[in-house]
Amino acid sequence: MNQNDLKNQAAEEIESLLEWINNHKNELEQYIPEGKIEHEALWGSSVIHKMTVDIKKGNEKAVKLACELIKDDEKYPFGKILKSNIARALKHQVKLINPQEKQLIINTTKKLLTMRYSPRETEDYCKLVAKFKDEIDLKNEFYGFKTGQDFLKRFGIF
User: Fold this and answer.
1) Do 142 and 117 touch, CB atoms closer than 8 A?
2) Could you please report the per-residue DSSP string of 79-118?
3) What is the pTM of this model?
4) For the chain, N or C: smaller number of CB within 10 Å?
5) How far apart are the first and last CA of the chain?
6) For the chain, domain boundaries
C-alpha cells in the first residue's frame, strides 16, 4: 500500500463518517458544532465526540444512536478510535440498551471476530458484550464459535 492508497482510504473513511452523520442528521442535530470547523474529519469527529459525552451522561437518544452505529459498523469503516470510545461509554450505560440492541451488538461483534484481521474496535465491542452476561447467556450465544477465542476468553464471554 503506497501513500496515495492511504490517502484514498482516509478520504473514503471521512466520506463514510459524513454519510453516517448525514443519514442521522435529525437525531444528531444537537451535536452539530456551532462554530465553523474547516476540516471535515475534525467536524465529524466533533459530532461523534459530543454524542459520546452524552452517552456517558446517560442520554437515551445518544445510546440508541450509538447502538445504531455499532449495528452498521461494517458499512462505515471510519474511526476505530471513535467507535471504541462509543463502546467504552456504552459499557457504563448497559441498562439503557434494550434486548434487541444488545443482540444487534452481539451479532456485529461476531461478524467482526470472523474477519481475518478484526478491526481495533472489536476488542471494545467484546468488553461491551461481556457486560450483557447477566441478561444473555453468552456461552450459548457464542457456542461453537471458533474465531476470536482469545477475545472471548479474555473478556469473560467464555
Assistant:
1) no
2) -HHHHHHHHHHHHTTGGGS-HHHHHHHHHHHHHHHTSSS-
3) 0.87
4) N
5) 37
6) 3-154
The set of residues, in sequence order, having a beta carbon less than 8 Å from that of 42 and lying 6+ positions away, is: none
CA 64 – CA 68 distance, rounded (Å): 6
Residue (of 100, 105, 111, 150) closest to 131 by Cα position: 105
Residue pair 80/48 in contact by the 8 Å Cβ criterion: no
The predicted-structure confidence for 109-157, as pLDDT tens digits, reads as follows 999 888 888 888 999 999 999 999 989 999 888 888 777 777 778 877 7
The C-alpha cell at 142 is 457464542
Cα separation of 13 and 18, whole Å? 9
The conformation of residue 146, written as its DSSP 8-state character, comes to -
